[in-house]
Each structure stands twice: as structure tokens, then as C-alpha cells.
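Collaboration report, partner site 2.

Our partner group contributed sequences for two proteins of shared interest, and the home lab folded both. The records are reproduced in the order in which they were received, starting with the first partner submission.
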Amino acid sequence: MQNIIFVFMITFKKSLGQHFLIDEEITRNIISVLNQRSYSRLLEIGPGGAALTKYLVQIPGIDFKCVEVDEEKVNWLLKAYPQLIGKVISSDFLIMEKPFDDPFTIIGNFPYNISTQILFKILEWRNEVQTVIGMFQKEVAERAASGEGNKVYGVLSVLIQGFFEVEYLFDVHETAFKPPPKIKSGVIRLSPRNKMLPMKSERAFFVLVKTAFNQRRKTLRNAVKSLFETEVLSDDLFNKRAEQLSVEEFGALTFRMK
């Protein structure tokens, strides 16, 4: 009930991409997904009106922290949920240090205006992140989960899937939020790959993927020619465009780079 009261009492900051979840069924569905797997350390990104937080603070036996950049929301959270004292990190997630020394899970209704950056930040922490359950605008969620040949398949898709299995779980309608966004949302789950993707090096993988998609309308031969010897570029594979290669093919191709 407190988060419902909250949404009528505060100022929504468009600059921070604030759309607060008010649909209890969606909230419970997200919590249900979280509890399908065990975890002992949990970070919530952008608790805002506490739609998820009010459930997360009740979970016994875990080390829980949340990060919130909006000072007004931080003050409200600490008053509404005194058990959050010492657990709220008043900071911008994109510049914060890792919240735990050991592996942890991430959950959140992520601000739309930085959702892609959030995924890239999670990539930086890929060796410590056990699971991510996040709500994004539908386009970003679909991009993270899409396979080769899809029009939204790109740099984000390949880099995320190079290290995580991505599941698109369900859509969320605009009416589930206050204020309602103009677009639909989607909830996805990221889990570390069961088997590491073979690649020459993580650096080579990142360079290849970003270079290939930087000129995605060109064939690979033209887009990534600076990364390969001339004889390698004669392979028919290089007649394809970046969006036609699977994540596994990108990984295999790194072994042929200069």
C-alpha cells in the first residue's frame, strides 16, 4: 500500500526516466521469478516507489542492498522502510563500485533512459553476477534476447549473449506504471552461460563485435578488414553482414584475427 500512496505524493523526474510500477500482479510475478533460484546477496537498481523493495526487504537470510540516484526517493524509502537504513546506496548505478565482494544477483525496474548502459555495466561485472532479473522497455529487452537474422540483433545482443543466457519472460503493459510510459516493457532474465563461449580473448571479442556492427550494412569483408589478414578475408563467411552471424560464429572468428 505504501508505494501506492508514494506515487501520489512525489515528483516524477522525466530526466531520470522514472515510471513507477504499480501493478501488484506484475510485481509478484517478478518476485516469483527471482525466487526460482537461490541467492544470498541481492542488489536492486532503482527502487523508486518500493514496488519490488517492499517484498525484497522481507526476504530472510540475504544480504540486500539497493542503489537509488534520486535523493528525494532515498529519503522517502528510509522513512517508509526503516529496515533499509544502511542498505541504500545513494549513487548513480553507472559509476558505483561493486556492492559485494562475492557473487550477487541483480533485480530492478530499470530506468528507460539508461537501460542499455545498465546492461553494459552489468557486462563489466560479468564474473560476479549470478543472475539478472530486469524490466526494460520492450525494444531493449528484445534486443538483448534476439538471435541472428533479427532486425534488432546487434552489438548489445552479441555481447550480452557472449557471457549470459538471455530469456525473454513476459511483456508488461503501459498501464502497469505511473506515469504510464508511451511504450511497452519486457522482463528478461540473464544467467551466466553454462558453457563458456570459445574466444581468442574477451578483448578480441568486444573489438570484433563492435567493429562489425559499426558498419552493419556492409559485408563483414569491408566492415572488419582491418582486423584480418587478406587471405583470411577471402573466406565466404565474410560475404555475410554482421547481423547474419551467430554469437558462436563471432566467438570462433576471433581466433582468426590478426
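Second partner submission, folded after the first:
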Amino acid sequence: MTQEKRTRLAPHARRMQLLDAASTIIQQYGLSRFTMDALATEAGVSKPLVYKYFGTRLELFQELLEREFHRFRDDLQKRLEAARSIEDIVRIFVTKNFDEVDRGSAIQILRGQPDIRKTIRNKEKHEERRFAQFLVAELAGSYTLTRAQARQLAVMGSGVSIAAAESVHRSGCHREDLIDDTVRFIVGGIESLGSSVKKRRTAAVEKC
């Protein structure tokens, strides 16, 4: 970005602008080519101003990752709250796995660095457990499954969607088409197991 006369921003707005500029550089060039000089140029500010907000690259990267993690989590929560069916919920989690495997996104580039990722590690574990519990409860309630059965389905479905997401990078498949196919595959498996469990229970009742 060509450096022009700097617009005065409130401290929080300036901080967010610098993080936005850092995200742009990381996605375009990766971490190896990131410098505070490049950030100043991209944001259209002076280098001393960059250091006024971020003392080191690591501090900046950690704050950027934390911001992107919270945005990702809040967006996922909103989509789950708006879901109206198991298929909607499965699609949300499949898309989440595709997003997490997207190695070109700033959040994934940053998460690939242990010294940067440590700032959100405990939060990640907590949120993963919370969303997993939500999915298990929805599956168990919708298909009259035990929590153990629902948990196993959630694990298998996650494995399928991660494998499908990774194949996008290898094969060049169209992302949205593969998400559709993955959702249909997982939902079909859930419905098949749910039907099988229902038949077994009906047969057991009839024997009694």
C-alpha cells in the first residue's frame, strides 16, 4: 500500500487496522516474509507507530491469532444457533473442518507455530469439548442413540470431513461440491444407524 497522509484513528481502531494489515501480509506471503517494515507500508503508517502498539512480532502474531480464534468461535456459535436440522448442524461442522484444514488462511498459518499457538491452546481445548458435546447431544436426541453411539458417530464424521478437506488440496476438487458430498455421506450414515437401532429395539420389545 502506498504510504499517504495518515488518518487519525482511535487506539482500538488503529490496533485492529494493524492486525488486519498483518493478516493480509501473512495470507499473501506467509510468516517468513513478514516484517514490521512491511506491516507499516501495508497499513500506511510509520514504523515507530507500529511499535507503539506491538513491541515484537511474536506479540503481534499472538494477538492476531487470538482475535481470529474468537471470531471463528463466535461465527460457529451463531451458525449453530440458527441451525434448524441435523443436516444444518452437520454442514456447519463439516465446513468448520474444511476451514481448519485451509492452510492458506491466516489463522491456520499462525496455528502452525507452537510459540504463537500456545496463547490459545487451553481455549481451543475447551471450545472443542463444548462443541463436541453439543453435537453428541443433538445426535443422541434426534436419533434416540446412546451418548456412546452418538459420540462414536461424531468422531467418525469428523474423520471423514477432515479427510475430505485434505483431499481438496491434493486433488483440486471444488470445495463446495465436496462439502455437499461429505454432508450427504455423513447424514446418510447417521440415518442408517438410527434406523438400525430403532429396528433392534422394536424387535427386542416384540420378543418380550
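Feedback sent to the partner group on the second submission included the following. The radius of gyration is 22 Å. The chain has a mean pLDDT of 88.
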